[in-house]
Write a structure and sequence with these properties.
The chain is an alpha+beta fold. It folds into two domains: 2-43 and 162-229 and 324-381, FAD/NAD(P)-binding domain; 100-154 and 232-322, D-Amino Acid Oxidase, subunit A, domain 2 (D-Amino Acid Oxidase, Chain A, domain 2, 2-Layer Sandwich), CATH 3.30.9.10. It is 31% helix and 27% strand. Strands 1, 2, 8, 9, 10, 11, 19 and 20 form an eight-stranded mixed beta sheet that branches. An eight-stranded mixed beta sheet has the order 5-6-4-13-14-15-12-18, sandwiched between helices. Strands 3-7 form a two-stranded antiparallel ribbon.
């Protein structure tokens, strides 16, 4: 098989890359070792995060503060990109951008939110603190016994990953992209025509390769002698309640505890926030733990008492890819034609904008953001 571009990885970034490239008229093949949207992207709960996480405010390392601030700027553009993309797809992907709240239970947490909001406004994100009657007019479902205030961010929201990534893939295929599911990349060798890629379905000759392999990105990069410093993957779990009448409009987070909370279009409440799951030694698959289920639901019910009468109908666990150096996007210096599109924190939020940044570089357009801040050379210069 021959193609101009081979994309490795069938998550949201890989599928968005295939779509963006194909509609530019660029020949593209995507290879995925499993099926599309079955790993971190498919296990995602669909939160569109933009605000700085409260725990990130405690980070003092200047380099990481710059990475976090750069990510926020990227997330602002990412939400706009999702809004544009959703209008181009063939089905409703349940995109709702109705704002996000990060709630505080103590004066210290509220003071921290004030500092966070000031920092966010300085980097271009509209957030501000609300409290008292103003807060409960916006979000009457919050507990007035426990919640003392919150930051509100108008551009946070939610999407359904189970609908969105497949819709992007369908659009990519209609535009001419080819998808090779259940195809493992075994070796990548530069040659005088670009690259020869050995897979479980035979060889693929391509001019360019984009590494969008998520959890497997380090393995793919190593095939061409490139080091991507992946962090240890996190195994996390989510909870889903039975449907209820729509009463939560926002993405809800907590300033001091692990909690994300939103209501899906069909009425289910999706509750998460980074509570740990485990890998089942018998199956090798992610599995939830009772302690995390109970802890997660306890804090959710404390903040939103209306949850108390709802039944838990489903839980799931998934592995979240992490990068110990911040996002890595773009062509590798000294290895023409090899590109990375690897993003960790809030990777579903950033998926389509990451694809656009890489495609802009591949097509010679000026990227909408400073690509140098995401270059792998920055990572290797600051190990």
């Amino acid at each position: 098989m021959e193609t101009d571009v081979l994309v490795v990885g069938g998550g949201v970034i890989g599928c968005a890359l295939a779509y963006e490239l194909a509609r530019e008229g660029i020949e593209v093949v995507l290879a995925e070792r499993h099926d599309l949207n079955t790993q971190a992207s498919g296990g995602n709960a669909g939160s569109l995060h933009v605000q700085i996480m409260s725990f990130q405010m405690t980070i003092e390392d200047l380099r990481w503060r710059q990475i976090i601030d750069g990510n926020v700027r990227l997330y602002i553009a990412a939400v706009r990109t999702w809004q544009e993309l959703a209008r181009e797809l063939d089905s409703d992907v349940e995109l709702h951008v109705e704002g996000g709240l990060m709630v505080a239970e103590t004066p210290d947490q509220l003071e921290g939110l004030e500092r966070k909001a000031a920092r966010e406004r300085a980097i271009g994100l509209e957030t501000h603190v609300v409290r008292g009657a103003e807060l409960f007019a916006i979000a009457p479902y919050l507990s007035d016994r426990h919640v003392v205030g919150a930051t509100i961010c108008p551009i946070e929201g939610r999407i359904n990953p189970g609908l969105a990534t497949p819709a992007i893939a369908r659009s990519a295929e209609r535009a001419g992209a080819r998808f090779l599911r259940h195809t493992v990349v075994r070796a990548i060798s530069p040659d005088n025509r670009g690259f020869e890629v050995e897979t479980t379905r035979g060889s693929i000759h391509c001019k360019r390769v984009v590494n969008a392999a998520g959890l497997g990105a380090g393995e793919i990069a190593a095939m061409v002698g490139v080091n991507i410093p992946l962090a240890a993957p996190e195994v996390l779990h989510m909870n889903v309640t039975e449907p209820a009448c729509q009463f939560v409009d926002h993405l809800v987070q907590h300033a001091g505890m692990r909690l994300t909370f939103k209501q899906a279009s069909n009425g289910n409440l999706i509750i998460g926030g980074g509570w740990p799951a485990v890998i089942d030694p018998a199956t090798g698959l992610p599995a939830v733990t009772r302690a995390s289920v109970e802890g997660n639901l306890w804090i959710a019910q404390r903040i939103v008492p209306e949850l108390g009468h709802l039944r838990l109908v489903r839980t799931w666990a998934a592995v979240n890819a992490g990068i110990s150096s911040g996002p890595i996007l773009g062509e590798v210096s000294g290895l023409p034609g090899f590109f990375n599109a690897v993003f960790g924190d809030a990777g579903y939020t950033a998926g389509p904008i990451c694809a656009r940044i890489v495609v802009d570089e591949m097509t010679g357009r000026t990227p909408s953001v400073d690509r140098a801040s995401f270059a792998i050379e920055r990572v290797h210069a600051n190990p």
